[in-house]
Every structure is written in structure tokens, then in C-alpha cells.
Design a protein that fits this description.
heterodimer; A: 422 residues; alpha+beta; Thrombin, subunit H; Protein Transport Mog1p, Chain A; 2 domains; seven-stranded antiparallel β-sheet; six-stranded antiparallel beta barrel; 24% helix; 39% strand; elongated; B: 329 residues; six-stranded antiparallel β-sheet; 11 strands
Amino acid sequence: MFSKLSSTLFLLLFSVLLSTQAQAEIAATSIYSTVEKSVYQIRVINKQTGDKSSIGSGFVVNKDNILATNYHVVSEYVNDPDLFRLEYLATDGKKGPLELIDFDIVHDLAVIKSKKPMGTPLSIDALPPKGATLFSLGNPMDLGFTIVKGSNNGILTKAEDGNILFSGSLNQGMSGGPTLNKEGHVIGVNVATSGNDISFLVAAKYLTVILDRLEKNNYKPVADRFAHSAAQIRESSKKIVNKILNNKWSSKHIGNITVPERLDKSILCWDASRKPKKDDLLRSYLTTCSNRDNIYVSESLNIGTINYDYTWLQTKDLSPTRFYRHYEKRNHSIIGSRANKRDVTNFSCHTDFTQIASQDFKTTVCRRDYIKYEGLSDMMFTTALVGKESKGFLFNLDFTGTDSKTALKLFTRMLETFKWEK
Amino acid sequence: MGKVILETIQRGVHRYHKIDSFPVTIGRAFDNDIILQDVTISPHHLVILNENDTYQIHNLNDENGTKVNKKKIGNEPVEISLPTTFQISGLKARLLATNMKVEETRVQDCSGLFCIFNSPIWAALLLVVTVALFFVDRYLSTPVVKEPLWYLSNVLPSVWVMLGIGILIASISRLSTHRWEVIPAISIASLIFLVPQVFEYIGHFLAYLFTSDGLGSWLKNSAKFLIIPILLATFIVKTVHSKWLPAIGIAVLAYSPFLAYQVLGLVDELSLLSGFSKVPSYSHTLRPRDIRLNKTISLEEFAKEAKEATAIRVEKMLKDARKKEEEDS
């Protein structure tokens, strides 16, 4: 009886599976034919050569001449409108010019406009439950329009950008294409992939924010793109840092000091201590922490990083002079960024001796500003314990693309929580 | 009328020919009064005449000719006064009066600091201190237990280079003065290695004292650029008894290959300072003894200071960069 029941269940389940699969296939074919005319290849064309310099995908949304794509697809054009222009390529091979009207650099979204009607606007819908089938459209590797089936794995909670984890195979060139639910409504915009069916989508709610803004101002193009980007990045950074400031931080002991460890769930910490060797006369412990957010600004510039590390050094056998040789060598902090002289100024640093956790520290603040992005700075902070003959402690903290005052506030707050234990 | 001397300088060797009677013929042929063996000189090159208390040079050849006061003379006698420098083809010559005053005798002095260099005890001491410093430096920068032989093998190359420089200096003195000035050479070679290290130590101390690494690098650079040429010039003046100006010239010349290398480094450093650098430049120095002029301040005070100080400089840089960008576009 039991065995009969269980085999029935299995059969039922199988038939359910069968029917889901069949439905999905039907959905995929019908979705493709329905939305095909609303999906385009978006191309950035070099004005001098007339050749495409980068490609992505885009789709009609809100109005018949409004398209959405990723910011990174059109970033070359955003940064150098004199050198590049935008163009669309339809599934039937037709081409035409496009104009950028708004973007959200933080969530990697851009909205562009065509002079001609481009097809039926796709409607935006809320994210279906975890496990729901999703269909992603785009033009991978310039091979032609494709539809990729995958499943929704929900919004990533460990990162600040709120992207959706899509278990499906996205490829280069599909960026900016829509990901649809079974009803054919947009729930996200293709943005990135880590390979092996691990892909990421920008949640459609962020696109709604831009579209609402545009609707209010009658689709008026953004006047100052750099100021627009700067304001968005600054606000995002302020929001993240203020959130960190309000968090309850976990703490850890490193040598004689108790320091804050994870400041936020978006920050991950790793132990990077060197494995001790038999003949070592010096022990060192290193913990590095960093956030996983990164705002794509241009091909050569990503900002929005927060990194910090703690180093503890101690010795029983080295003389103070010998110990300080090594301690001083470790006291060199740099910032991991590809920003060059066209992006940022030089660093300006200020060093002095401060009292932290009733101990003396040599503390430095360095700041450099972005030339085009008003009010955005890279900040580097470092502090080194002084006056102890056989103990050393270094703390480095750096931010890229942040508000200098907010960053300084976080640095001082972190130092205020340091505790010295004998 | 006093006698006259003809001085010829051939390949750095000075030769003096006493002239008792005039006219005196000069050339490569063996029937001349003064025979000069140089293929650029004609068999009968010139005649020096003494008529009516005046001296004349009469050029006889049409080949490489004769120059008086750097000007080529024709085949007519040219009047000269004593002393006169002239050029017989490529050969430098002077016509001098025998009663002309000569340079004062330079006494081989052992005065002041140079006595230290001349004394074998001091030279040995400098050598030992320098080699010891090599060991100390290597020891301080090794945070693991190592055998003494390991230190020896690490230090030996520097010792060989130092001794090599000593031998080079001694050889140069042998060539120029025909004396092996070994003791001063060892002292100078030791100092070439010792002084920059001492300067670096002082620079490091001052950098921490003033919380400014600039001072340290200034001292380090001055040691690189000035100390070694000064030491070499002192050596030349004291051993070869040359004058200071040519001695400095020779010292700079001898040091020029190293100087070129140092200049390259300095240019890199300067371009980093004046140009764009991804690396923040701040005071990294840490010393076991916390001796400094800056007092410890509160975190709040520091944050205020840092905010103001960095903002002023960054805003200026930003203004310049934006102005430059406008000009470029």
C-alpha cells in the first residue's frame, strides 16, 4: 500500500515536472516572439572610424521611444561624448541613432531615447519568488539575439547594490538586456556574470526610480553628466558609511588591542597572517577586510571600495632597533585603484601623533579628489602604534569615491572603539 | 740679455730647452737647433729670432703651421713678448724668460683632518668600522636566525667593492704621482661607504623628530651627490698637491658614471614629487625611541587639523588640474 502510494507521488511529481518544463518551453518561445521587437543591440560607435567600440543590449520600456540598458554599456559615450555616439541595431538589421537621457551609475543603469518609435514598451513587474523561472534576453558576443532560461535566486543580501542572483548563463553582450518573468514582464536588467550559471541582474525597481524621475521632468536629458554621476556616487557612499556608523560592530582581539572587525554584512574579513617559520624572530598577524561593492565608472575606473586591515607585530628576541626596521617597512600604505592623473589629483597627507586607546599612535590622513567628479575623494588613513619596544600595530583604512568628511568620521569612530589590553 | 727657455708639452710631459743663441731653428729634421719628434711637425717648422731686444716667431712651413695666441700666423715674422704661449702644429709650447718667477713650493703637510687619513691606525679603524657597519645593517634587516657565515657571505661583496674602490684610487695616485697612496686610499674608500650611512641615520632620526620624511631624503641625497666628490677632491688635493678647482673637476669627472646613475634616481624622485603619483607621500618613519617634537594630540584635534590641512592642498591641486584641463580642451 505504502509502496503504491509513494510510486504514485513520484509519478505525480514527475508529471508536474513534465508539465512545468513544457510550460517553460512554451513560455520561452512565446516570450521570445512577443518581446523580440522590443529588444535591441546598443552600440557605442567611434565617431572617427565609424566602428563599434562596445556593444550591449537594451529594451523598450515605459514609452515607445525610451530604452533601458546598463550604464557600463554606454559609459564610453557618457565619459567622451565628443569621441563616441550611440546607435541601436534591431533584430531585423535596422540601425538608428540614440541619445542618453538619464542614468544611475550606482546601480549600473542608463536610459536612452530614440527619435523614432522602437516597439511595444515592456512592463515592469515585481521579483517573483525564489526558484521561479526567468528568461533573459540579449545579444551575446554579437552572435544574434538569444533567450536564456534560468531561475531566480533572490536579492543578494551581502552586497549593497541589491542585485538579483540569476542562475542562468549570461554572456558578454547581453548586458543591458531584460530578464523577464513567465508573464513576459521585466524583473531585472542583465548586468554581470561569474560564469558557471552564476549571473547577476539589476533589480527593476531601480529602473522604475529613473523612469519616474524622467516622467516628472518630461524626459529631459541630464545636463551635467559628471555632476550627476558624482552626486549619485557621493550619496551612495554617504548612505553606506552612515549605515556602517549606525551598525553594531563585531570586535576582535589582535595582540593587545581590541578592534572593530565586521562593520557591515557587506564587508568580509580574512586572515592574511604569514605562516610562522621555525627560525622567525618576529610574529605578525594580519586581518584584511573589504566590501564587495564596486561602481563601474569607466573601463579603467571602478570606485566605491572600502578596505581596512590590522597588523600586529611582536617579538621576544629582536632588539628594539632590529624590530623597528621591520615594523617601519610594514608602515607603507597604498590605495588599490586604477585612477590615473586624468581622474584624480595627487594625495595630500597630514601626519601627527594622536592618543588612541590611551596609547600614542602616529596617524596619517591622505586625501585626493576626483577632477571631473565634484565632491568625490579617495581617502587613505593609517595609524601606527609608537613607543613600544617590542610591539607594533598598524591600522589602514581606505575608501575610493567617497565624501571626505563622512570617511574621516568613520575612521575616527573606528579609532575611538580601540581598546588596549595589558 | 738673459737666457730664454722653450717649454714644450708633449703628451703631458713637459720638456725644457735652454736657448743661448738666436736665431734658433725648430723642426723635425736633425739639422735643427731644437729637434721635436712629432709627425705633425714639419722638418723645418719655425725660427725664433731675437733682433733689437725683441723676440719674433717666423713660421717656415705651409703644412700644419704655427699658432700664436690661438691664431695661425703667416710666413712673415711675428713679434712676441715673454712669456708667450704658442702652438707648433698640435704641440703646446711656451717661450719663457729664465728669471721668471715659479710657483711657490707646496709643503707636504699633514695638517687637520687629513692626518687622520694618512695614519695607518686611523685607516684601519675606518675600514673596520665600515665593515662592522655592513654587518650591523645586514643583521638589523634580518628578522630570522642566521649563521655568522651567512652574514659573511652577504657582506663580502660590499667589502670587495669597497676595497676595489680603494685600489682604484691608489692606482690613480700611482699613475699621477708615482706613489702608492694606499693608506689615504683605504681611508677615503671607507668614508665613501661610511658617510652616506651616517647621513642616512641622521636623516632618519631627524625625519622622526620633525615628523617629516623630506628632511631625511634631503640629507640622503646630499650625501649621494656631495660627500663622495668632496672626499675624492680632498684626496687629490692632499696627495697629488693639486689646486682645489682642478681637484674638484677631477673628482666630479671620476664620480660622473655614478653621478649619472644618482641623477637618474633623483630625477625619478623629483618627477614623482612634481608629477602624478598613485602613492601617497607621508611620514613613514618609526623609531624605537619615541623622540619627537610633535606632541601627542587628541583624536578630535587631529581630525580637525587633518581635515583643514588636506582640504587646502587638495583644493589647490584641483583648481590647477581643472585649469589645465580647460586649457587642454
